[in-house]
Specification:
Keywords: DNA-binding, Phosphoprotein, Transcription, Transcription regulation, Two-component regulatory system. It holds the Pfam family Response_reg. By secondary structure, the protein is an alpha/beta fold. It is built from 8 helices and 12 strands. α2 runs parallel beside α3 and α6 packs across α8.
Length: 235
């Protein structure tokens, strides 16, 4: 895995904890070195600080998301960087940890992202592909296509889509989605809102009038499908 931070102390602490957890760790001190390291050897996950010299973390995230391999990204953000954090999620980061952070929490987040990237959720193993109009979701293969074109989904986006399409008509609150999709019993509920918005941009015929992922106002979200009445727009 690759840890990207210009603070030597942060890099050393994170590396030490990840090493103790059994991970092989490379480091980079700026955005350009991070991109070069990924190009030289694809890591299993990138732990990426937003505030980097030479090339900022958001731009690094944007460029990594152009890759077709769905490389998992965990952002490190400061408390005052909420807008940047949301933008990072919109660019496709899979998770974030806010500074100052517990290294043990970061290790748990890394383990969660890797587990999602490598393993099929037991509840969805063996399921047949789900077809909703021109949207095909191959859950065992972790692929989704729209009108024959493969969608570039992050690990967390695919997990959310797979969970919803397998449970059409059921309404889930944001805390329920955090816990049941990603296994979090804590976390910022805006994470769900951001991922729903990103999914709508990728799977809806018209993201401003969603037909597949409906908002149930005051409650949460429901998957309807294109052949069902459209839900409310907006998060």
């Amino acid at each position: 895995m690759l840890v990207v931070d210009d603070d030597v102390t942060v890099r050393d602490v994170v590396t030490r904890y990840l090493d103790r957890a059994g991970y092989r760790v490379d480091v980079a001190g700026d955005g350009e070195r991070a991109l070069a390291a990924v190009a030289a050897r694809r890591p299993d996950v990138v732990v990426l600080d937003l505030m980097l010299p030479r090339l900022g973390g958001l731009e690094v995230c944007r460029r990594l998301r152009r890759r077709p391999d769905g490389l998992p990204i965990i952002m490190l953000t400061a408390l005052g960087e909420e807008e940047d954090r949301v933008l990072g999620l919109e660019l496709g980061a899979d998770d974030y940890v806010t500074k100052p952070f517990s290294p043990r929490e970061l290790v748990l987040r890394v383990a969660s992202v890797l587990r999602r990237a490598r393993e099929l959720p037991a509840r969805d193993a063996g399921l047949e592909p789900v077809v909703d109009g021109d949207l095909h979701v191959d859950i065992p293969g972790r692929r989704a296509t729209l009108a024959g074109r493969e969608l570039a989904l992050t690990v967390r986006e695919f997990d959310l889509l797979a969970f919803l399409v397998c449970r059409p008509g059921q309404v889930f609150t944001r805390p329920e989605l955090l816990e049941r999709v990603w296994g979090w019993d804590f976390g910022d509920q805006s994470t769900v809102t951001v991922h729903v918005r990103r999914l709508r941009e990728k799977v809806e015929p018209d993201p401003t009038r969603p037909a597949r992922i409906a908002t149930v106002w005051g409650v949460g979200y429901r998957y309807d499908g294109v052949d069902e009445p459209a839900g409310s727009a907006g998060p």
